[in-house]
Design goal:
78 residues, six-stranded antiparallel β-sheet, 27% strand
Length: 78
């Protein structure tokens, strides 16, 4: 069975060069910035909520906002 396309993260590039990562209609990228502007500025979002780069790093380290298989929960399952 193939994964539901509604739950996949989509990479969209607008005509001005802005790159956005969208999941379920919300800005979301657990790997890095969810918005990258042509001038190089970045915005960090998880499930539609915006974070500073430091807040994003902290949430990623804690596993908050990440899918279960990328959080610490996956490592604890034996």
């Amino acid at each position: 069975m193939s994964p539901d396309p509604n739950f996949q993260i989509k990479r969209l590039k607008s005509p001005d060069g802005t790159i956005r990562y969208i999941k379920e209609g919300k800005l979301h990228n657990p790997e890095g910035p969810a918005v990258i502007h042509p001038d190089g500025t970045e915005e960090y979002h998880l499930n539609g909520f915006q974070y500073t780069k430091d807040e994003f790093k902290k949430r990623k380290k804690e596993g908050n906002g990440l899918p279960w298989y990328k959080s610490g929960a996956a490592k604890m399952r034996h």
